[in-house]
Structure formats: structure tokens, C-alpha cells
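Hmm, what's this shape?
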Amino acid sequence: MTILKKIKSVFIVPDATEGTEDSNSNHKETKSTENISLELKPTNEGKLKFYEILAGVIEKSNTPGFDYIEFKSAVKSVAEMHQMNEETAYKTAFITAQTMNVKASFLIDSAKKYISILNTEEIAFSQSAQKYLDQQIQGRKNELGQLEKETQDIKAEIQRLQQVLIEKEKRINKISEEADSFKQKYESNKVDFQEAYKTIVQQIEEDIQKMQKYLA
């Protein structure tokens, strides 16, 4: 068992890792939470992802020899193998540690070291998450501001076009009225012209008849 698998088996409960070990067997590079892109995933998948990332952080920080990680693994192994209670499992595993001249104080200090490492990772993650959130919110605010401006511009343009439409419709009505007026004036002038024309022509014809009669 690789150190990463050992750490995952110690810290991740079985039902959380079921069916995932093979898919992660070719994992070559441990990601830092500083480079995590926050994705919306089901709770269990998200929790498992961060379990694996933090296990990878612990793996990178694990030094050769028997420290807290190896001790915790030993506690779990003897407890499962011999069906021991918690206290007996701890004491039995510690016997193994003592054979390698490992003291309880060293195990405690090494455990605190991992907490410190994880605290640093937690801070980095919080900063990364906050930065991501700020960027996303600011991006949405910028887009919202732009859309609101465009919306106002469109509304203003609609109002302008509505006013233009009103003016055009007024002009259409005016032109129609003017056309009717010109038509009426044409008809009236035509009648008046014809009457004047007929009157003058009639007078001339009468004069022609009189001249033929009186001057011949």
C-alpha cells in the first residue's frame, strides 16, 4: 500500500471512498487547495475531493520513519485485526512505536505538526475561495451594470422611436388631408374653369354670328 493510500484509508471513512480507489490509482500529482477551482458538485463528491487533496498534502509532509501517520495506521490495523477497544489498540500500537525508540511526546508533536500544516492549507483555501467568490461577484456586478445601462439605452431608444412614430403618423394624416384638399380644389377649379370657358366661347360664337349677319 502506498503512503497516499495508507493516509486515505486512515482518514477517509470506507463508504466515502467506495468505488473510487481504482479511479485514483494513477494519481501522480497532488494539488494544493490554492489551485482548486470551486465547482458545484454533490456534497459527497465535494467532500471526497477535499479529503483526497488534504490526504495528499499530508503525504507530501510525511517524513521517513514512524510518526503520527504510521502510528494512526497501526492503531487502526490492530483494532480491526484483533477486535480491540480503543484504549487497547492505542497501547498495542504504541508498543510497536517503542521498539523503534519513538516516544509518546514525539507522536503528539508530529500530530500537531500535521494540524499546523492543515491549518496553513485551510487558510490558503479560504483565501483562494474568497478570491474566487469576489471575482465571480465582481464579474456579475460588472455585467449587471453593463446590462442595466444597455437596458436604459434601449428604453430611451424605444421612447425616441415611439415619438418618431407618432410624428410620422401625424405627417401621414396631414398628407392625407392635404391630398384630399388638393383633390377638392382641383375639382372645384375644373368646374369653374369649364364654366368660364363655356361662357367666353359662347360669347365669341355669338359675336361671330352677329358679324356674319351684320357685316356681310
Observations:
- The helical segments are 3-11, 14-17, 43-61, 68-82, 86-98, 104-214.
- Residues 134 and 208 are 108 Å apart (CA to CA).
- The chain has six helices and no strands.
